[in-house]
Amino acid sequence: MGFEDLTAAPDAQTAPEALLEFPDNRLLIDLCGEFDRNLTHIESHLGVQILRRGNQLVVIGEPDAREKACEVLRAIYERLEAGKTVEAGDIDGEIRMGASDQGTGTRDGDQMEMFKGGPVEIKTRKKTVEPRTDAQRAYVLSLFQKELAFGIGPAGTGKTYLAVAVGVNMFLGGHVDRLVLSRPAVEAGEKLGYLPGDMKDKVDPYMQPLYDALNDFLPGKQVAKLIEEKRIEIAPLAFMRGRTLSNAFVVLDEAQNATTMQMKMFLTRLGEGSRMVITGDRSQVDLPRGVDSGLRDAEGLLKGIDQIAFNYFTSKDVVRHPLVAKIIEAYDDADQKALVRASKNGRRDS
Length: 350
What we know:
The protein is 42% helix and 17% strand. It is α/β, with parallel strands linked by helices. The longest helix is centred in the C-terminal third of the chain and has 28 residues, at 322-349. The strands form three sheets. The chain has a six-stranded parallel beta sheet, with helices on both faces. A four-stranded antiparallel beta sheet has the order 1-2-4-3. The N and C termini lie far apart (69 Å). It contains eleven helices and 13 strands.
């Protein structure tokens, strides 16, 4: 252990402060961050005060918050000792998840490091990705363990990003021969009209988020080469009809905008040696009024099948800007109030 807890154990709960000593000053500087921004981040989230005294950090606050802050500081220092970087999202992940002693159930051959009580790491060519919430961790495990998995929840919870990361990981490890990434080409509440160019020019704007995710995990030239060789395919949902997708890692993004028939069509493309991930946000359906969402329909029909995993996210799992979680909660609250008003009006009318 690279640090030392100098708080006397018998008085740890009653002492007004906890004292941690870190022997490597270089790592301590990285732990604190530029202008101590990492410490400020922990302080604002946990309601503690953190003071730096030489190579020691003093944590002041209520016992539970103080203990949690010490856990986070230790975990960040261990990351730095292992040669990893620390960003705001990594700190958020430590605050949300903390220590875990659950086994991971990893199978031999999975190209993923899963340590008991430690992080789940998805290795790709450009970066290593780690889940930052318990829901994300469970989701990633199900992507490796199940042939068909659903990720359902609001924007910013990492559903598509993690699915593409796992797909790239399995592709690089030789577990699948190709990646197939798809989305319904549905306009998000606005009429774009005629788009110039060939078919690729017309559909690429809808597929851009998938390109963005891929470019985070693979060098741009390699992505272009693999697309040219058809080992990576990015195509609208309508282009999947009539195909059998074998030995592939298949992702359907924005599945709430697939119709019931499209969803059935896509799910039945699953071939030998393939894995399929369906992601969507039930609160952002852009289908015409009166057209049922295939995601909601599939959720109801397939819930009882053991080999299919359903993973759910909430605003607490948002890993974008902190304001995104508050925006989602505000809209959810407004929707709930609208349902209550509609219910009351219905009773009055009857």
